Amino acid sequence: MADSDCIVVMGSNMAENHPVAFRWPMKAKVEHGAKIIHVDPRFTRTSAVADIYAPVRAGSDIAFLGGVINYVLNSEKWNQDPFFKTFIVHYTNAATIINEDFKDTEELDGVFSGLLQSTGGVDEWPFNGFINQYDGTTWQYAGTKAGEQGRAASTAQSGEAIVSSGPEGIKPPATPPAAGKAPAGPPFDALVASLVKPPAQRDETLQDPRCVFQIVKTHFARYTPEIVEKTTGCPKETFLNVAETILASSGADKTTSFAYAVAWTQHTYGVQIIGACALLQLLLGNIGRPGAGVMALRGHASIQGSTDVPTLYHSIQGYMAAPTALKTHDTLQDYLAAETLPTGYWANMPKFVVSYLKSLYGDAATKENQFGWDWHPKILGDHSHMAMFVAMNAGKVKGMFCVGQNPATSVNAKLERSGLRKLDWLVVKDNWLTETATFWKHAPEVKNGEVKTADIKTEVFFLPATQVGEVEGTFTNTQRLLQFHHKAAEAPGDCRSDTWFYYDLGKRLKKLYAQSTAPRDEGFKHLVWDYEHEDVHERKKGEPSALKILKELNGFQSADPHKHLAGFGALKDDGSTSCASWIYSGVYPAVGENLADKRTPDAPGQPGAQLHWGWAWPANRRIMYNRASADPDGKPWSEKKKWVWWDAEQKKWAGYDVPDYIATKPPNEQAKPGAVGMDALPGTAPFIMRPDGLGWLFVPAGLVDGPLPTHYEPVESPVTNPLYKQQTSPVFKYWEETGNELAKMGDPKFPYVLTTYRLTEHYLAGGMSRWLPWLTELQPELFVEISPELAQEKGIKNLDWCRISSPRTQIRAKALVTRRLRPFTLDGKVIHQVGMPWHWGYEGLSTGDIVNELTSLVADPNVSMHEGKAFVCNVEKA
Length: 878
Description:
Elements: E1 6-10, H1 14-17, H2 23-32, E2 35-40, H3 45-49, E3 52-55, H4 61-73, H5 76-80, H6 82-91, E4 115-117, E5 132-134, H7 189-194, H8 212-219, H9 225-232, H10 236-248, E6 256-260, H11 262-265, H12 270-283, E7 294-296, H13 305-308, E8 315-316, E9 320-321, H14 332-339, H15 349-361, H16 385-393, E10 399-403, H17 413-420, E11 425-430, H18 439-442, H19 444-447, E12 459-464, E13 473-476, E14 481-485, H20 498-513, H21 522-526, H22 536-541, H23 546-554, E15 556-557, E16 560-564, E17 577-578, E18 615-616, E19 644-647, E20 652-655, E21 733-734, E22 752-757, H24 773-778, E23 783-786, H25 788-794, E24 801-805, E25 810-817, E26 824-826, E27 829-831, E28 833-837, E29 858-859, E30 871-877
Parallel strand pairs: 1-2, 1-6, 2-3, 6-7, 10-11, 11-12, 22-28, 23-25
Antiparallel strand pairs: 4-5, 8-9, 13-14, 14-18, 15-16, 15-17, 19-20, 21-29, 22-30, 24-25, 24-30, 26-27
Helix pairs in contact: 4-9, 4-10, 4-12, 16-17
């Protein structure tokens, strides 16, 4: 971001919530005059240093981004500068022809073709919360069948949605036609080859009405500056200033970057907001180049790492889909046939999966037993946070390990605490006695007599945890950078690390199942579980070796574990390599060579990517898809934005970064008809993880709520959708439970928009900050931010107690009357917004009401993310 000419911060208060990362936008601003733009409902410290602050109504991000897309597509600069057309024709699917049966929201009043009525309930698994679902068959490229664009059309992300359906209604997809006939592996080359389909039809003149470019242009035509103002509340002049600045800061010699956080994700259409930004950045040539891209700002130092090596239910390591009982994943062959993309780099998936299974089961994983495939667990549907607590409330969950999480203060917190009361047992492992650890005696419903402790059957175990400075290991930060950290202090008392806990638990379970003859226990019996620490002192305490775990992630030769793998290019599908996480392969390429522990900066003033500071996946590439930093001929787009290029003399890709490409694949190489992997792509295809090698403006597979971003209102909204007849996403998730009631559109009892946010001084629900006297002194109590206009209307003065209510419950907080929030006039109606930080609970040095009790269990259908950034409330003087 230090190389950006413009930085747009949207969906984030970067200066306050990511202050260390924000030094790079400030460096760009101070050192070479980059523009900073902040688009946000609140005026914050990010806004204060921005060149342009654009106020918007919470939940209207797609309308704003759609307006920028429309502005760009109709601008003189974009249509006359050859850079933009060259980029989208060669590097995106703009020229690809879409199925003739596809119908856009323009034709169907705000929905896409293929909308179905769901037949599922919530009385048994999968508890998926779907109200409706789409059949995405018509979204495919012309000439292809359902599912052929890739692992998608089912939600590989959530393991439960559908590619296609019959008259019986929604049902899991059948095995792809070729899969049943494909030769068995390993090697799996023949299987992958059997999955190859003819290339998609294209019109590089971009004139065909069914080509992606024309569909995109038509789709966003209604997102005019006037509609943007009417929908978002942002003044037209401010919006146009933002759009023009972004466009002026993009091109062959200029790049714009975006940064977002949970204010984009926590919506029932959060994935589509991010997709709108990606679409815009592709149109502007701002992907794969220095100072460009879309930066997802992660919270904890290793939130990125916890999705790479997932604590998520829907994926296994390296972003491969979790095996599921809802699809044809009965055998390893079935799984690979269903999930492998035969063209592009994902054609190597059999190597990744087999090496992953070898890391789990070692010598016990053989060709004869499908490398232990039957031992690997399968998901049953949506096992995400909200679905899990709905199941818990239904008595379907017996026990829970709660580690580094505080659900007693989480989404619709009262309902979640109701679920905790129905468990047989609960293990809480944390630094302090959090609200979840004491829900059985200190929760509001216990204190007010609504629930009696004696009636709660849950047996609660509390295990004190270490802080990060008391253990060694790696962090993976928001830019995919692994950095090893060393132990700085001994933990007090009996505090134990998370690695100690899981390692000890694993050893106990292996011992427990050692004599079992049940087939279901074979996985535990054969699980590789040997991470004894090199240091005698640590080994006596039972602490496992972080280096041995890192070695397993990196990979090694199965026959000789001392031979580490140099990278994922060395992986095999015959069982000869073991690698837990293919994307991390290369971080520990040899004994004594932990690249995550390197801290050597580039020389001052030297153009480069800091390649010797930590290690970034994949293969230490600092900018993903950096083939796009060169033109189709392999030459830099400009000297100023030079990054990776084709060296004709050396006959390989070179540059300041590790090329994210096949090193010796020349730019003029043509795609080989019928080939697999990278041979199926031409030398001009930068997006090697896509089956066509292109960035997707239109998403033919992989999303369950539509191929193009579309403005919908939040599930709870005080206004009607100004753009479409369809008010909300037609496929959002909702769990209809007592205590999870929703307000109807425009409900006069809840007239205001409420958005939640974070403070610099506190973290999440406060479990890491409200026990620290220094931080609680800086931010001592809960408050609600309201505008002077709303305060005057309600007779509220600064520091007055307020009652904030939603359809779920009500809470109290002190009033902070401030011009950081402003009312909007939308189509003649005044809409007030209020804001609340959500760091408080009933434990710690500083206590306060739980803001998340106001929220509801509704979710984005792709990833089951809640909608805490935009819902309705009422505010009264208390």
